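About this split. The held-out portion is used to measure sequence recovery: a designer receives only the structure tokens and must propose an amino acid at every position. Recovery is the fraction of positions where the proposal matches the reference. Here is one held-out target exactly as it appears in the evaluation file.
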């Protein structure tokens, strides 16, 4: 249970952000929030200009619900005596307020973090499983779910907003968990959602084009990711870096005075990945250091998953998890929802659902499936609306390079016109006449599966674990896995 605090306690943690303040500084505060719908008697309301909404427009509603104090980024009129403060850099400021309000739950947990464009979710799942196998009580916050130890909650976003994040960490603390594995998005790192918390180990997977609608250019995107290692990693704690990624090489150089552990399949590194074998049944490889060589096997398939495995194992190794525990964990680790997830079926083509929604991720998954495809490699994909438009033609190029047949459909158009998104993607195809456009996604999935031969592979990419499709700002139930299974089952009851 949160302890009541004074408004002055909140001012004390805002020293570097504070511009001005006034009112009754000794007012009792029982909770803090940035959503007026969560305000109740004794709350501190935090208002800022967000990407979608302006929190200042909800101050009156917050006061009506019982808020007794305000922190904002611009002056507003308030009832006389109401404690108030003006801050700069409100994202970071509110993160400090959130952790104080929750009584700093991260101090009771060992935080492990994963960042990068692709591979975060699989690496996080692997870390959670390895540390659980080692006997620790472990939670996780990531793209697919929030694991609080006593419950699993479908994730709303990769890294929760500050007040939600601290609430979830507090529940982990109250459930007496020891570790929390976090996927940290570039948005979360840029906005300092973790507040003053430090992580005790971190993995950098890779960097490819994504989120440039937010970061404006690649350099800004990289700098946001780098903050995890230069600002949020506890002293002397290990940082694991993929040296085969060009941005990973730069990161290792930028952080060379820290406890950097590099891994590579292609060049000299602290840990070298060798003897790689991969098929639809799984992967095996050796992770070789100066004084040891761990021979590992996993049911995960594809070279990109070997990288994910190597990153997770490297961090576990650096934190003292022994080889036998890691080997056992990898051997019984099944899969991650929506990541190279094969849809069970007795008849029809092999169908996989994957979250690949960048050109690099799409290339990786297609490259993993190509060696085991005995027929045609068929791809269904789309691009999300109101996101980085520059990657749309790049997705088309990756699709054309890796697939034999292409079905272009709608992903999450959000508030964009699906036809406009399709038009942007089509500009990236060298031979657009070979692309079959079916905007309605279920119809596209049905057509892709029903037109495929038994020896073909169908990859349904882009949405992965998601159980909704967002159109015109409304989320309706839609699950690629469910839809694919339905049409595969229909094939099983037909005679081809």
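Reference sequence for scoring:
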């Amino acid at each position: 249970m949160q302890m009541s605090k004074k408004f002055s306690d909140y001012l004390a943690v805002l020293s570097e952000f504070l511009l001005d303040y006034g009112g009754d500084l000794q007012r009792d505060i029982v909770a803090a929030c940035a959503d007026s719908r969560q305000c109740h008697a004794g709350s501190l309301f935090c208002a800022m200009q967000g990407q979608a909404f302006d929190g200042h427009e909800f101050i009156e509603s917050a006061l009506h619900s019982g808020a007794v104090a305000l922190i904002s980024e611009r002056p507003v009129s308030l009832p006389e005596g109401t404690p108030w403060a003006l801050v700069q850099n409100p994202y970071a400021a509110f993160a400090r307020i959130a952790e104080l309000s929750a009584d700093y739950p991260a101090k009771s947990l060992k935080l492990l973090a994963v960042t990068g464009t692709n591979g975060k979710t699989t690496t996080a799942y692997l870390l959670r499983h390895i540390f659980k196998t080692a006997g620790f009580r472990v939670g996780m916050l990531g793209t697919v779910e929030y694991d609080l130890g006593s419950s699993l909650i479908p994730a709303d976003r990769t890294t929760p907003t500050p007040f939600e994040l601290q609430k979830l960490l507090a529940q982990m603390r109250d459930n007496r968990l020891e570790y929390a594995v976090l996927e940290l998005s570039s948005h979360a790192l840029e906005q300092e959602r973790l507040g003053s918390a430090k992580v005790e180990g971190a993995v950098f997977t890779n960097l490819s084009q994504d989120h440039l609608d937010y970061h404006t250019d690649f350099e800004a995107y990289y700098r946001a990711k780098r903050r995890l290692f230069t600002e949020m990693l506890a002293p002397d704690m290990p940082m694991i870096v993929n040296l085969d990624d060009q941005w990973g090489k730069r990161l290792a150089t930028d952080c060379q005075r820290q406890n950097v552990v590099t891994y590579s399949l292609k060049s000299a590194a602290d840990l070298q990945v060798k003897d790689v074998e991969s098929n639809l049944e799984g992967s095996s490889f050796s992770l070789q250091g100066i004084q040891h060589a761990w021979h590992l096997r996993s049911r995960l398939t594809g070279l990109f998953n070997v990288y994910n495995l190597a990153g997770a194992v490297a961090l576990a190794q650096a934190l003292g998890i022994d080889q036998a525990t890691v080997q056992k964990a990898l051997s019984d680790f099944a899969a991650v929802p929506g990541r190279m997830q094969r849809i069970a079926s007795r008849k029809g083509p092999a169908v996989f659902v994957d979250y690949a929604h960048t050109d690099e991720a799409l290339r990786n998954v297609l490259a993993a499936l190509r060696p085991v495809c005995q027929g045609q490699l068929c791809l269904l994909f789309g691009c999300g609306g109101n996101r980085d438009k520059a990657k749309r033609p790049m997705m088309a190029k990756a699709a054309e390079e890796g697939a034999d047949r292409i079905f272009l459909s709608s992903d999450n158009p959000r508030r964009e016109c699906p036809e406009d998104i399709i038009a942007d993607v089509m500009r990236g195809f060298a031979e657009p006449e070979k692309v079959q456009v079916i905007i309605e996604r279920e119809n596209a999935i049905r057509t892709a599966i029903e037109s495929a031969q038994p020896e073909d592979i169908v990859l349904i990419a882009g949405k992965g674990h998601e159980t909704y499709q967002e159109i015109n700002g409304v989320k309706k139930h839609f699950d690629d896995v469910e839809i694919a299974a339905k049409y595969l089952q229909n094939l099983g009851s037909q005679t081809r």
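Annotator remark: The mean pLDDT is 93.
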